[in-house]
Every structure is written in structure tokens, then in C-alpha cells.
Design goal:
Number of helices: 1
Radius of gyration: 20 Å
Largest sheet: 12 strands, antiparallel, barrel
Number of strands: 16
Shape: globular
Helix content: under 10%
Mean pLDDT: 87
Strand content: over 45%
Structural class: mainly beta
Strand order of the largest sheet: 2-5-6-7-8-9-10-11-13-14-15-16
């Protein structure tokens, strides 16, 4: 007899994302002049972060310093780009950690909606058998997340994020109760609230993030998985250039772990 799939989890995930507000993820390029209206800014952005550890939503990815390049194109609220992370240290059983995340988003006033495609190449054989173009739900290494972000005005700088993995490598429990090994999509959902502000030229951003139910991505049960504080500033290197740097202290109460991360943006 075919097992009946309960619709409760995807419905819950959809409702949770829908009722909250919150972008899923620059050097200025050309300006396009509309002859019948105001100019429309076109922006190209590229850069990279150098970080002592890659910590994402309370979990360590790679156990290594990492280089994290990014590139994007923006036009009239639409943004298309890609972000990646590549571990510096080589691990005997896993090689160098690698990740590539193309994304698209659209911003309207205080709200941004977007979709990100998370993909993790094989660090041992980066040029062979990564199966990037395999999108079969049961076999793919891709995981697609839909998200919504609310970013408040300067007088009320609250940021609220909600994201749900809706397709791909995010499975529920198997017969032994282990998340990630089942056959049905788990709809893993993550929420985060932060409130960035500035004190004497230094950026301060406290944040807390959690999940409503268990997940192979975040933790075995609902609760807080990511809480901490990021402090950032720019260090003047020359008369024309300042180097943005940041330090984050990050805790994962569910995983009983804590991290202190330093980074610089190029």
C-alpha cells in the first residue's frame, strides 16, 4: 500500500513564510536613460569576503578559513547574482569545501522576495561527476529556497527573514527517524530577526534565528539554532580606500556550539 504523504508540513511552512516579512541575500555600472522618464540605475557588483570560518545559520561549513566571491546585476528592483564559498584547507576525506549559490530577487519598498539555488560541489573531484545539471528531486544535489525579507526604514531598522527549502536535497525522516534520509521533501524553514544600528561609525547587528520543526539542514527539533552579534567597521588603508572588516560571535544553542569569526570584504 502506498504511503500517504501528510500535507501538514508544507502547508505549515507556507503559512509561516507568508505571515512574516523579510533580502534573501557595489560598484555602480552604467545608467540607462529613459527618454520619457527618469533615469533607471543599472548596477554591476563584484567582490569577495575572506573569513576565518564559514558559519551559516549556526553551522560550520568546511571547518576552514574560506574565500567567498560574489557577483550580481541589479536593475529596477530586480537582482540576479551568484555567491560562493571555497575552503582554504584540504581535508583527506572530503577535500576542499565548495559551495555555489545562484539567486534571483526582487525588491519593492521594504520587501524583498527571492529564490536561491544551493549547490555543493564534490571537494575531492571538483572537475568530475558533480552532476550540476541533474535536477531530479530524488537525486539532485541542488536545494531551492524561497524567501521573503522585510527591511525597515532607518528610524526602525528591524530586519525579518523567512525562508523555506521547497525542492531538492532537503528530505524528511527515513524509517529510523533520521532527517535527510527520507524520500519526501521536508520543507525545512528558517526565520531570523536582526536589528542593525551604528555607534560612532561602528556597525552593530544583533540577531537570532530559529526553526519551527526538525531538519537535516539545521537541527533535529524546533528551536533557536543561530544567535549572536556582528560588529563591523572600515579601516582606512589609503586616502582613496577603506577596508571593511567584521567580527561575529555566533552561538547555536541546539547544537551546543559557539564560534568567533573574523572577516574582511574586498
Amino acid at each position: 500500500m502506498k504511503k500517504r504523504v501528510s500535507p501538514l508540513k508544507p502547508i505549515l511552512a507556507f503559512l509561516l513564510v507568508s505571515i512574516l516579512f523579510s533580502p534573501c541575500f557595489s560598484q555602480t555600472g552604467d545608467i540607462h536613460q529613459n527618454e520619457k522618464g527618469p533615469s533607471i540605475p543599472v548596477q554591476f557588483s563584484l567582490g569577495a569576503d575572506l573569513v576565518s570560518r564559514y558559519i551559516w545559520r549556526g553551522k560550520d561549513y568546511g571547518n576552514s578559513p574560506a574565500i567567498q566571491p560574489n557577483v550580481s546585476f541589479s536593475f529596477a528592483g530586480l537582482k540576479i547574482g551568484a555567491w560562493g564559498s571555497y575552503g582554504v584547507l584540504y581535508r583527506e576525506n572530503s577535500g576542499n569545501y565548495a559551495e555555489l549559490d545562484p539567486y534571483v530577487s526582487y525588491t519593492w519598498k521594504w520587501f524583498t522576495v527571492g529564490v536561491t539555488d544551493y549547490f555543493f560541489p564534490n571537494g575531492l573531484t571538483p572537475n568530475d561527476n558533480n552532476r550540476y545539471f541533474n535536477y531530479d528531486s530524488k537525486q539532485t544535489g541542488h536545494a531551492f529556497e524561497g524567501c521573503i525579507t522585510f527591511t525597515g526604514p532607518e528610524k526602525f531598522p528591524l530586519q525579518v527573514f523567512a525562508g523555506t527549502l521547497f525542492y531538492g536535497a532537503d528530505k524528511g525522516k527515513d524509517s529510523t527517524g533520521v532527517y535527510g534520509l527520507g524520500t519526501n521533501n521536508n520543507y525545512s524553514t528558517y526565520f531570523e530577526i536582526s536589528c542593525p544600528f551604528t555607534v560612532r561609525g561602528i556597525g552593530v547587528k544583533p540577531f537570532v534565528g530559529g526553526i519551527p520543526f526538525g531538519s537535516g539542514w539545521y537541527g533535529p527539533y524546533g528551536g533557536v539554532v543561530n544567535a549572536g552579534l556582528t560588529v563591523s567597521k572600515s579601516i582606512r588603508i589609503s586616502k582613496e580606500y577603506e577596508l571593511p572588516v567584521f567580527t561575529s560571535i555566533i552561538s547555536n544553542p541546539q547544537g551546543q556550539s559557539v564560534f568567533l569569526v573574523f572577516g574582511a570584504s574586498l
